[in-house]
Inverse folding.
């Protein structure tokens, strides 16, 4: 189980690094996108955007420090649950807000994002519930590599889905 925890930590940490960096690169664009996704009072848009970016940036830091890894999994789970809820509400209300999860995108939020975030929340919960043991270095490297591959697939998820949607 220590490999599962290490792989989940790698996956969740790398996904949040990619998400936080993309939002920091275009913070104003991310902040402007929030009202289209969720009902936010105009005065709270920028503070909410800042809270999201800071929380996303803190999550990977917590995940790589063994005494506080469980807090990283918990924060990641809470963020993913909040994002999933916001997307579900937007989809239910018929809002076609673009997904700014990993930078500028014209892809509107939809069921695929609910599936992606639910899977990530599951991985955060699984990692958080696994026993906290540091695996041997070789096993840690393999688990981290598996997390890296998973993170690349998650960050590229919209592109992969669009690629297969066009070919069918």
């Amino acid at each position: 189980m220590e490999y599962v925890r290490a792989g989940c930590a790698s996956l969740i940490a790398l996904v949040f690094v990619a998400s936080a960096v993309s939002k920091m690169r275009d913070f104003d664009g991310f902040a402007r996108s929030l009202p289209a996704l969720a009902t936010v009072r105009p005065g709270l848009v920028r503070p909410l955007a800042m809270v999201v970016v800071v929380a996303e940036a803190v999550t990977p830091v917590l995940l790589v420090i063994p005494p506080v890894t469980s807090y990283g999994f918990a924060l990641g789970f809470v963020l993913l649950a909040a994002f999933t809820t916001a997307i579900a509400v937007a989809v239910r209300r018929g809002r076609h807000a673009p997904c700014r999860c990993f930078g500028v995108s014209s892809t509107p939020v939809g069921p695929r994002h609910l599936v992606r975030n639910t899977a990530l929340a599951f991985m955060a919960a699984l990692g958080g519930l696994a026993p906290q043991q540091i695996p041997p270095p070789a096993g840690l490297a393999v688990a981290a590599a598996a997390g890296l591959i998973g993170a690349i697939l998650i960050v590229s998820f919209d592109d992969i889905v669009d690629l297969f949607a066009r070919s069918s």
Notes: The first helix runs from residue 2 to 25. DSSP finds seven helices and no strands in the chain. The radius of gyration is 16 Å.
